[in-house]
Amino acid sequence: MTSTFSAFAFARRRFASAAAGSRAAAGATRGHVSASFVAKSAVVCGAAGVAISAALPDDFDFGLGVLAPKGAQAFSLIENGMHAPHFDWEHRAWNKTFDHASIRRGYQVYREICAACHSMSLISWRTLVGVSHTEEEVKAMAAEYEYQDGPDETGAMFMRPGKLSDRLPEAYPNEEAARAANGGAYPPDLSCIVKARHGEEDYVFALLLGYSDPPPGMSLREGLHFNRYFPGGAISMARALYDEVVEYEDGTPNNASQLAKDVTTFLSWASSPEHDERKKMGMRSIAISTLLLLLSVWYKRFKWAGIKTRQIVYKPPKVREV
Questions:
Q1: Virtual torsion, Cα 52, 54, 60, 66, nearest 10 deg
Q2: Across residues 195-215, what is the average pLDDT?
Q3: Of 158, 136, 120, nearest to 273 (Cα)?
């Protein structure tokens, strides 16, 4: 019986050893074939790639569009415009509001210079009340313009003086008239111009003062002006701000930089008229939240201090001896 089991175990070991050797040989054969196949495939694919590249035009993008670059493109300051320098605007601080005197002066610059070409169709007269002018001043300014209203009892439209609910008057009746008066260029609406441009106040301020002679070798067609901060360098708007071009009511020095600063502040306020109230509400929210947090901590300690520090002692009952 013992010899029978020994013979069976020996046969089993021989069979297992033979099977392992067969698997090892098959694996080596597969690895050899796989490596050979990869090598041949690499050579064939490389040759095919060279042939396709030679046959196709240079600007063929293989259907990838902008994902396949067509060539190196150098960054040009003239084509993209210079990056506007950063200026320390006071209202950008978390605890500062707009300079309302500057807003008033900026509106004066807009009314006397910018309003000839640019509109602010999203701003109502009443928005200025309590910000830069009194209610009586705004009513008087609105009454200087006439607005179409109606119909009346006969069904006809009529003209009336402006009131607080009206929007600031538009420079042109429509876009076609604006382009015809500006050589084909359309003056943008300035209601949200600060938020609509990269760099915001910095860009607007730099653009207003960035006019100069074009660099050597650059020619501009008639009606265009060189501005190093405008993409492409050629802008249809001529320089409008010069020293003493506006006489301030409060006697502030009226050099070109001051005019640009004030009108930029006015346009920044027009883009975010809720700026001051939003900051005030945020500070109130932080103060109230801090007070509620302190009250919560105090109540938690008052309520739970006795429970968390008390001791519970278990006294087993006495067992009567029988």
A1: 90
A2: 93
A3: 120
